[in-house]
């Protein structure tokens, strides 16, 4: 894994959208019209959500490279990012600021359609200097060629490259070869590997030094240095799952940049992601660091959840199974 600068800043390079959110009894089927609640307009986008989570919930020094239009929606995003204490590198585009149409059902599931707009204007030359940067966080809502160029530049300068492989798509070996930490949900992981088998098998086959699978209400599983680390999900009552994964990614990056070991980073990221599901919206749902601390402090080690998660992922006793507070021993290494 790339040797990163200790306790450096996190730079998020990626997307920002204005979210148009409506709650409805259920997600509409094709051709169906559903009467929902009032329209809410909120700042979002995977990159911006992750930057807010990194700064607000993770407590890391955070900057963001973002492309915005010169329109009425751009200030909403700028104000949200600046309010979280994020240093901005803004590229102005003639295209409209990105937008997302989000329907959230009463059972907290969501369906999202994105109009990328200005997000597609980011080019390789837009990457700012990386002096003092520990980690570069990327997603896939900007041009793939730009993501590859950013990752290669960061790798060449000794900066840790963290890629959230969302939205789901196959990834070229050129990009995977420049990534230190890959974060993907179950669908995204299957798309990347192009294979079946257990989650454990898929994680092992990616070929990136650290691979993390986020598994919703099950928790998360990471494969690193030949061992598996498991973190069961925190028990909360979800209201809206929008940005839960983004919150996880931002807090994981923050924890690692501040010197946390992987299992502790997974613990903090999982707690923050769980809290994000208890509120409506994207950036508006991201908790503050003290709330993350409080949830961790009030939650007992979940042995039953750990065993269920191991079974779900296909991780056996022949591998290292970890959770902060007492990892099982690795019988193979």
From TrEMBL:
Regulation: Activated by a monovalent cation that binds near, but not in, the active site. The most likely occupant of the site in vivo is potassium. Ion binding induces a conformational change that may alter substrate affinity.
Cofactor: Mg(2+)
Annotated K(+) binding sites: 240, 242, 276, 279, 281, 285
Cofactor comment: Requires a divalent cation, most likely magnesium in vivo, as an electrophilic catalyst to aid phosphoryl group transfer. It is the chelate of the metal and the nucleotide that is the actual substrate.
Top-rank taxon, per record: Bacteria
GO MF terms, alphabetically ordered: ATP binding; metal ion binding; ribokinase activity
Keywords, in A-Z order: ATP-binding, Carbohydrate metabolism, Cytoplasm, Kinase, Magnesium, Metal-binding, Nucleotide-binding, Potassium, Transferase
GO BP term, example: D-ribose catabolic process
Similarity field: Belongs to the carbohydrate kinase PfkB family. Ribokinase subfamily.
Role summary: Catalyzes the phosphorylation of ribose at O-5 in a reaction requiring ATP and magnesium. The resulting D-ribose-5-phosphate can then be used either for sythesis of nucleotides, histidine, and tryptophan, or as a component of the pentose phosphate pathway.
Protein name: Ribokinase
Species assigned in the record: Sphingomonas alpina
